[in-house]
Amino acid sequence: MIGQDKLIAKLKSYSIMTLPHSLLLIGDRGCGKHTLVKELEKYFNLKALDISDSLELETIQEINVCSITRFYVIDMNKTNEKQQNVILKFLEEPSSNAYIILLATSKSILLDTIVNRCVSFEFEPYSTNQLLQFLPFETDVEMLVEYCHTPGQVLSTSVDKIKEKIELCDNIINNVGKARFPNTFKITPKVINDKDNDYSLDIFYNILLERLQDSFIKTQNNVYKDMYNISSNALKKHLDQRLNQELIIDSLVIDLHEVSRGRLE
Predict the structure, then answer these.
(1) Are residues 247 and 135 in the same domain?
(2) Helices (H), the chain
(3) Do 58 and 149 belong to one domain?
(4) Which end of the chain is more exposed for a tag (fewer CB within 10 A), N or C?
(5) Would you say 25 and 104 are in contact if contact means Cβ atoms under 8 Å apart?
């Protein structure tokens, strides 16, 4: 893996006898959490089974009597509180044959009791030079690495799509407060319906936040600061994959309309 040498070295400092049975990998979407799991599979010579979509008490009971030693992977951004309580039972009474790897974008989406029972490992932010290594030399990369923060984001988009999102975000920033009603300012289809790109919304929020930050720096107008804080909160909600993404975007537009209405004339 590129850019995570310290994290990999820390994990590979364990032997299979000393490896914690409950690991928590924390990092932005697209940072390489699943890729790291594959690295661990090779290094420890264990297979990994993703059980994110089958989190029932019966599943945990079956694992606890299974004689095969393996990694069990759970994407915590997909779990609700009931499922997290099932996982907590898994962590409290771990099988000697089960190594549990939880994946999350932030500790804030997890029950404190889950965090306390895991050994946590956080991905470091990728530098521009590290992200450039994921791209072909002929790519017009400057715009990609400016607005994409992880390898997954960089590899999922194109310069043309970034330009479209910049135009959309600038339109939101400059015009949402001028709309008579927020529901006439329809952006949801433009940012939701990119079905070929799992990271389209992540990149949209990256661009919106950066353009708002630039606007505040240039003008020192506090309305941009307020819009930034609203957008930052919407991003936090977006990262919780249990929530309805369309409703988050709709609420974002309403809140941006309210805070900017008449203040950017």
Answers:
(1) yes
(2) 5-12, 33-44, 57-64, 81-92, 112-116, 128-132, 141-147, 151-156, 159-175, 188-192, 200-219, 222-239, 245-260
(3) no
(4) C
(5) yes
Q: Which domain holds residue 12?
A: 5-122
Chosen domain end from 95, 122, 149: 122
**Looking at the domain assignment, is residue 265 inside a domain?**
no
Q: 73 and 174 in one domain?
A: no
Question: What's phi and psi for 165, nearest 5 deg?
Answer: -70, -35
Q: 9-14 long-range CB contacts below 8 Å, 24 or more apart?
A: 10/121, 11/36, 11/40, 11/43, 11/121, 12/43
Q: How far apart are CA 91 and CA 147, in angstroms?
A: 37
Domain assignment of residue 98, yes or no = yes
> Do residues 23 and 108 both lie within one domain?
yes
- What are the distances in angstroms from CA 212 to CA 121, 123, 133, 174, 186? 31, 26, 28, 10, 19
**If we measure between CA atoms, which residue out of 169, 175, 201, 170 comes closest to residue 257?**
175
Torsion angle, alpha carbons of 122, 128, 134, 136, to 10: 170
Residues of the chain with pLDDT under 70: 137-139, 180-197, 262, 264-265
* Residue 107 DSSP symbol: G
Residue 176 has what pLDDT?
A: 84
Q: Which two tokens stand for residue 178?
A: 């001028």
pLDDT at 184: 52
Same domain? For 227 and 150 the reply is yes
139 vs 158: CA distance, rounded Å: 9
pLDDT at site 97 = 87
Pair 115, 134 in one domain: no
Quick one: pLDDT at residue 197? 62
Q: Are residues 153 and 248 in the same domain?
A: yes
